[in-house]
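Entry:
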Amino acid sequence: MVNERVDEVKSATVLRFNDLWKRNVQANLPKIAASPGVQNLKNKFKKLPTIVVGAGPSLDKNIQHLARIQEKALIIAADAALKPLLSHGIKPPLVVCLDPQEDIAKFFTGVSHEGMTLIAPTIVHPRILDIWGGGVVFFNKYAPDIPLLTEIQNALPKVGVLTPGGTVLSIAYDLAFQSGADPIIFVGQDLSYENKTIYARGGETGNQNWETICRDQSENIVYETDIRGQKLPTLKSMSVTKQWFHWAFTNWKRNARLTVYNCSEGGILTDHCQWISLQEAIYKYCVKKVNANLRLKKALK
């Protein structure tokens, strides 16, 4: 059943986006040539505590704690988490996106991007690059079983790769993993809809709510077990991301030490990572100032 779900999501993605990927990368070639690639960040954040922030509903429980430690950790934000973070005075040095559609521009409009770097796929919609006011680092989507993405990777080998797994949070984790970050701490990583809530407060959800998901994506709704043993509704893509994380946690190895904590205090990511509260992780690891922006600047010179 799990493999069938993965194949289903992958086939639907290729069918939906293949032509868009092709148009986007052609439009982006000049900016790709003039910008650094994610390869530049490999092993550049060794031993740096890193918080990967998703926009799940559980982010509301912990977002206030991130403001006081943003100088004591590297914060990597999913695109949908950017506005909730900025509304609490938190400026993440790195913001990650994955979706090739113009619609994700809603996550970046109406706010300043000063002092932040966007980690963007080479197949990102060119409109996103037009409105983004900060730095940009590109990556190729590593997908050896998808011919067009493999062709793009081979044509742009110096960019480097990140491995997608259903949602943008997989890309954020791979970035932290390759950079040597430790520990990697998840916040707002629900991958599900507890109490039928879609996103953390302060985000840009557009017209998306539980009712519209039920109406428009009823065939894509499945159920997964959360950390309390309850069944929660989710989308097939997020179910695939859960399985992807379990695969990455158990199969990816590196020479540098790695500890992964899920501090979301909710959601369905339950296996092969340690569950502690965010306050406990902060007390244990975010104890001294780290100049993440300076390290980032040096890496991208």
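The chain is about 40% helix and 15% strand.
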